[in-house]
Specification:
By secondary structure, this protein is α/β, with parallel strands linked by helices. The protein has one domain (2-524): Rossmann fold, CATH 3.40.50.1820. The protein is 31% helix and 15% strand. The strands form 2 sheets. It has a 12-stranded mixed sheet, sandwiched between helices. Strand 7, helix 1 (129-134) and strand 8 form a beta-alpha-beta unit. The longest helix has 27 residues, at 375-401. It is globular, with a radius of gyration of 22 Å. Keywords: Hydrolase. This is Carboxylic ester hydrolase.
Length: 526
C-alpha cells in the first residue's frame, strides 16, 4: 500500500546523482512498512534502432525531477504483444530502501536477476519489501530489466561485424556498473553487492562469474543462485541459422546489409518474429530457443570448462535446487524413444553415444500418477542436465578453486499439495514464495505459504538475509533453524522440509550422473 506521494530522496532534498542524467530529486513512493520505493529508473539508453543488438549505452543527459513512482515497461519476450507494459525501450531499474537510509548507511545491496529462460522477463514486479522488513531495514533491494529473446541473444556473423553478442548479459553488467556509481546515494554500499537470481537469473549470475575469464572488476562481492538454469551456449557460427530465419521471414535476407535492414523494422513488426522454433535439424520447438552464446570474448570457452579451470570470480556463494527441477518441462513420454527425442530436441548436439549414456543413466522408473510411463525418467534427466548438475558442478569448482568455507548449498523439498497431487513433486523455483514472501511473487506456490507452509518463510528469509548481510547464512539465521554446513568434498547441503530442515550429502547416484553430464558438456554446449 502507498500512503502518499513525496519528494523522497535517500539523504536530502538537494541530492544529485548523474546516471547519464542529472536527477535533482527522485520522487518515489513511501510504503506502509516505512520503505522507500523508486520505480522506473533508466540505467541505459533505449536499445532501439541503430542500438539494437549493441551493448547498452549511457542514457541522454538531462536535468530535472525523476518521478520514480511507476514501473517502466519491461523487455519484450517470446510471443509477447507490445503494450504500455512491454516495450523495446526497457532498460530500467527499481530500488527499495529503508526510509532512514542515507549516503552514510553503507547497507548491503541485493541485486535480483529475473527469471524467464532468457526468452522473457518473467518477474519484473518482484520486489524486496518483505526482505527489507525481515532484515530490520538492514538491506537494499534492486531489480531490473534486461533484453531477452531475439532482442537479447541474436548471434550471427552479421552481429559480429556490426553489433555485440549477448546483449542481455551486457545489460546486466552495465546495470552492475551503474550500481557502483550510484547506489551510495540510496544508502547502499558499492563494495557489498550481492547478486541474486533464480532460474535464468541464477544462470545469469553463474555466467557473470565466469565472464571475461573470471575477471574481477569489483562489481559484486557475493552471489546467490537458485535453481540455476544452464542451457547450451553454442557458438555464433552454430546459431547463424537463427539470424537467417529472421532475415528470410522479414524480407531482409536479400538486402545489401541484412542487419541494418532488421534494425530499420519497427518494434511491433519485428516482435512478431520473436518466437520459439526448433533448433537446427530438429522437428519440435525448443522451450528455450534463444539463449547466450559462447562468443570468444565474454566467454572464451563453455561455462563448464571455465569453471573446471578455475576461471571465475571467487566470492562467497549460496546455491541450490528444488528436488524435481525438470517436472514442469518434461515431455509426458510413453516410450524411451519419445524420451530421447525430447532430450535431443532441447540439446540438439547430443550424439548417439550420448543418448545411449542417457538411457543407461535414466532407465524407466515407477509410474507417477497422471503421467505416462517414461515421464519420471524425462523429468529427472532434464532437471539434472539443465538445473541440478550445473549447480552441483559449479559448487564443486568453487570447492576446488575458491574458499570452501564460503560455500553453501541446499535442496528445497517443501511440498505443495497441488503440485504433489498432480505428480510434479517439488518443481522448479517453488522456493520463491519462501524467499520473497507469498505476496511478493506470482509463483503458483504462493497460497500455501500463507497457510500450512508459512513456517518456512522466516527460516528461508533469515538464511538469505544473513548471507546478504554477512556473507554467511548462519550469522543471522532464525533461532529455530539448524546450522548450515559448508558444501565441501562430501557435497553437504541443507534439505528444506516443513518442520524438518536437516543436512544431507548428495547421494552416489546423483554424483555419478552429474559427472556424466559434465563429461557430455561438449555435446550439451554447457
Amino acid at each position: 500500500m502507498v500512503h502518499n506521494w513525496c519528494n523522497c530522496v535517500p539523504n536530502s532534498a538537494n541530492t544529485e546523482f548523474d546516471a547519464g542524467a542529472v536527477l535533482r530529486t527522485q520522487k518515489g513512493n513511501v510504503l506502509e512498512s516505512n520503505i522507500y520505493e523508486y520505480l522506473g529508473i533508466r540505467y541505459a539508453k533505449a536499445p532501439t534502432g541503430d542500438l539494437r543488438w549493441k551493448a547498452p549505452q549511457e542514457p541522454e543527459s538531462t536535468t530535472g525531477t525523476l518521478k520514480a513512482q511507476e514501473y517502466a515497461p519491461y523487455c519484450p519476450g517470446v510471443n509477447d504483444g507490445l503494450s504500455s507494459r512491454i516495450d523495446e525501450d526497457c532498460l530500467f531499474a527499481n530500488i527499495w530502501t529503508p526510509a532512514n537510509a542515507t549516503s552514510d548507511s553503507k547497507l548491503p545491496v541485493m541485486v535480483f536477476f529475473q527469471s524467464g529462460g532468457y526468452i522473457r522477463n518473467a518477474s519484473p514486479y518482484v520486489n524486496g519489501t518483505r526482505l527489507i522488513s525481515a532484515s530490520n531495514n538492514n538491506i537494499i533491494f534492486v531489480n531490473f530489466n534486461y533484453r531477452v529473446g531475439m532482442f537479447g541473444f541474436l548471434a550471427s556473423k552479421e552481429v559480429k561485424e556490426d553489433g555485440d553478442f549477448n546483449a542481455g548479459l551486457l545489460d546486466q553488467r552495465f546495470l552492475l556498473s551503474w550500481i557502483q556509481k550510484h547506489i551510495e546515494v540510496f544508502g547502499g554500499d558499492p563494495e557489498h553487492v550481492i547478486l541474486h537470481g533464480e532460474s535464468a537469473g541464477a544462470g545469469s549470475v553463474a555466467l557473470q562469474l565466469v565472464a571475461y575469464g573470471g575477471k574481477d572488476e569489483g562489481l559484486f562481492a557475493g552471489a546467490i543462485a537458485e535453481s540455476t538454469f544452464m542451457p547450451g551456449l553454442p557458438s555464433p557460427d552454430d546459431l547463424q541459422y537463427q539470424f537467417d530465419r529472421v532475415a528470410n521471414a522479414t524480407d531482409c535476407a536479400d538486402a545489401d546489409d541484412a542487419l541494418k535492414c532488421l534494425r530499420g523494422i519497427k518494434s511491433p513488426d519485428l516482435q512478431t518474429h520473436n518466437e520459439k522454433a526448433p533448433f537446427d535439424g530438429r522437428t519440435y520447438r525448443s522451450y528455450f530457443y534463444w539463449a547466450p552464446t559462447t562468443d570468444g570474448d565474454m566467454f572464451s570457452d563453455l561455462p563448464s570448462k571455465l569453471y573446471e579451470k578455475g576461471e571465475f570470480v571467487k566470492v562467497p556463494l549460496l546455491s541450490g535446487s528444488c528436488t524435481n527441477e525438470g517436472s514442469n518441462y518434461a515431455v509426458n513420454a510413453g516410450s524411451s524413444a519419445q524420451f530421447i527425442r525430447y532430450m535431443q530436441n532441447e540439446y540438439p548436439y547430443l550424439t548417439t553415444d550420448d543418448t545411449e549414456t542417457i538411457l543407461d543413466l535414466y532407465p524407466q522408473e515407477p509410474k507417477i500418477a497422471k503421467h505416462d510411463t517414461w515421464f519420471p525418467s524425462a523429468s529427472r534427466a532434464y532437471g539434472e542436465a539443465t538445473f541440478i548438475c550445473p549447480t552441483n558442478n559449479i559448487l564443486n569448482a568453487f570447492a576446488e578453486h575458491a574458499d570452501p568455507k564460503t560455500l553453501w548449498s541446499y535442496r528445497y523439498n517443501v511440498a505443495i499439495e497441488e503440485f504433489t497431487n498432480d505428480g510434479y513433486g517439488v518443481p522448479h523455483v517453488s522456493n520463491a514464495p519462501a524467499v520473497f514472501g507469498p505476496d511478493m511473487t506470482a509463483a503458483k506456490a504462493g497460497p500455501s505459504y500463507r497457510t500450512y507452509n508459512a513456517p518456512m518463510v522466516p527460516i528461508v528469509q533469515n538464511y538469505w538475509i544473513s548471507f546478504v548481510r554477512s556473507f554467511d547464512p548462519n550469522t543471522h539465521r532464525d533461532e529455530d533453524a539448524p546450522r548450515w554446513e559448508n558444501w565441501g568434498d562430501d557435497q553437504r547441503r541443507l534439505v528444506f522440509e516443513l518442520n524438518n530442515n536437516t543436512m544431507e550429502s548428495v547421494n552416489k547416484g546423483q554424483r555419478e550422473r552429474c559427472e556424466a553430464w559434465l563429461d557430455m558438456s561438449g555435446s550439451t554446449k554447457q
